[in-house]
């Protein structure tokens, strides 16, 4: 036992000595020199490089195979992409055509209902005659006589249910009968009755959505199958622009002093007073007065958009206000509807929106220079023009004044019938 113990002690001592030697700095230095010598040998470097190259090649080989396979399919992929793009283009075109077809079908359907009205709230009775009910209702509630022979047909619409009164759909024989009822339906305000347009499903959804979800809308209504929306904010914005623009025109003294139309503080009374005074003064002095009164037909429709924008820019209107005017005036379209047939949409290149706040002021800006080339005296009230001159010596000047008035009439006629050619400088024409 003692021998074994000494042997164990001797073995443990050797292990400790070896561990101490292996952990010593001298042994580590020897190992570093050995490793450095091995790494420095060319054979080791070649073997190491060969091993690395083999590992890289082994890793890259599957990728190269996949890449080669992809290159084989690349032309097919490109062809498929082209076909997909073509299909998307065809689908987009088909969707647009479908929308146009749906809209046209909706327009045609709404047009077929142009003589229709829905009467809501009339009590439903057993074995009723709807035509007689409508005639009696119009006489009692609207105060008008609607003969039975002006009604093509009348009947209840919708499913019959307990406690619910169905509307009566009425088709009149002509538009005037329908219009007479529409004018008088204002008498039903705050009552349990109502009269509405007979709308298609699409128009009814549009109408309901506009009334329920559209913000800043003052009122919404349908008339003759057309949706009308009155935006309260747009009117406020338009009034603000009007005030700023009008004050600017006064500041730069742009507005023609002979123009009395749409001018606060001015009126036809002032113009007539001035004109009558000139006539009486001439007659009291024994002179003659030659006068011609002109009126521009469809004056607001003759305001050429491109020319108006040019004049606005010329007087000092700049962006963003100029772009705002351009947005309001351009890209407007119109078409003709007759007997259920629709013409193609056409761009509107002239005209200011009638009934708008800014329309009259824009018209004044457009015709402001109408008096520049006139030889006789002139007064303006919007689109009404009076040319006049006093004949001081009839024997000498009568023929000259007559010729001058004739030239002014011709000049004014050209400017009002072809404003695009006559009122604008060469760079704006076309």
From TrEMBL:
<dbReference type="Pfam" id="PF00078">
    <property type="entry name" value="RVT_1"/>
</dbReference>
<protein>
    <submittedName>
        <fullName>Uncharacterized protein</fullName>
    </submittedName>
</protein>
<dbReference type="InterPro" id="IPR043502">
    <property type="entry name" value="DNA/RNA_pol_sf"/>
</dbReference>
<dbReference type="InterPro" id="IPR000477">
    <property type="entry name" value="RT_dom"/>
</dbReference>
């Amino acid at each position: 036992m003692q021998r074994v113990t000494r042997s164990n002690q001797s073995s443990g001592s050797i292990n400790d000595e070896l561990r101490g030697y292996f952990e010593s700095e001298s042994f580590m230095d020897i190992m570093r020199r050995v490793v450095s010598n091995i790494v420095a040998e060319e054979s080791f470097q070649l073997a190491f490089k060969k091993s690395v190259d083999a590992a890289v090649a082994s890793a890259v080989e599957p990728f190269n195979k996949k890449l080669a396979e992809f290159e084989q399919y690349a032309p097919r992929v490109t062809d498929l992409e082209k076909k997909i793009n073509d299909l998307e283009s065809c689908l987009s075109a088909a969707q647009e055509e479908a929308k146009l077809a749906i809209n046209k079908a909706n327009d045609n359907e709404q047009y077929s209902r142009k003589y229709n009205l829905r009467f809501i709230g009339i009590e439903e009775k057993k074995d009723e005659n709807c035509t007689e009910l409508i005639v009696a209702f119009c006489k009692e509630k609207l105060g008008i006589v609607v003969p039975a022979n002006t009604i093509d047909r009348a009947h209840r619409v919708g499913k019959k249910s307990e406690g619910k009164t169905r509307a009566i759909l009425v088709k009149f024989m002509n538009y005037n009968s329908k219009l007479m009822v529409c004018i008088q339906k204002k008498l039903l305000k705050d009552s349990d009755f109502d009269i509405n347009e007979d709308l298609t499903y699409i128009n009814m959804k549009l109408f309901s959505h506009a009334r329920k979800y559209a913000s800043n809308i003052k009122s919404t209504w349908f008339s003759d199958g057309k949706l009308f929306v009155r935006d309260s904010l747009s009117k406020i914005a338009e009034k603000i622009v009007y005030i700023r623009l009008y004050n600017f025109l006064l500041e730069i003294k742009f507005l023609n002093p002979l123009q009395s139309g749409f001018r606060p503080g001015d009126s036809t009374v002032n113009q007539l007073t001035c004109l009558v005074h000139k006539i009486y003064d001439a007659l009291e002095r024994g002179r003659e007065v030659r006068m011609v009164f002109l009126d521009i037909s469809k004056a607001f429709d003759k305001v050429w958009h491109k020319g108006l924008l040019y004049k606005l820019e010329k007087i000092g209107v700049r962006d963003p206000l100029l772009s705002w005017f351009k947005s309001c005036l351009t890209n407007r379209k119109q078409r003709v509807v007759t007997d259920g047939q629709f013409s193609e949409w056409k761009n509107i290149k002239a005209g200011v929106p009638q009934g708008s706040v800014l329309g009259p002021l824009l018209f004044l800006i457009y015709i402001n220079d109408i008096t520049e080339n006139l030889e006789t005296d002139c007064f303006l009230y919007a689109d009404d023009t009076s040319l006049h001159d006093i004949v001081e010596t009839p024997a000498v000047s009568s023929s000259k004044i007559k010729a001058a008035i004739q030239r002014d009439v011709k000049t004014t006629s050209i400017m009002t019938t072809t404003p695009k050619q006559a009122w604008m400088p060469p760079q704006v024409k076309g």
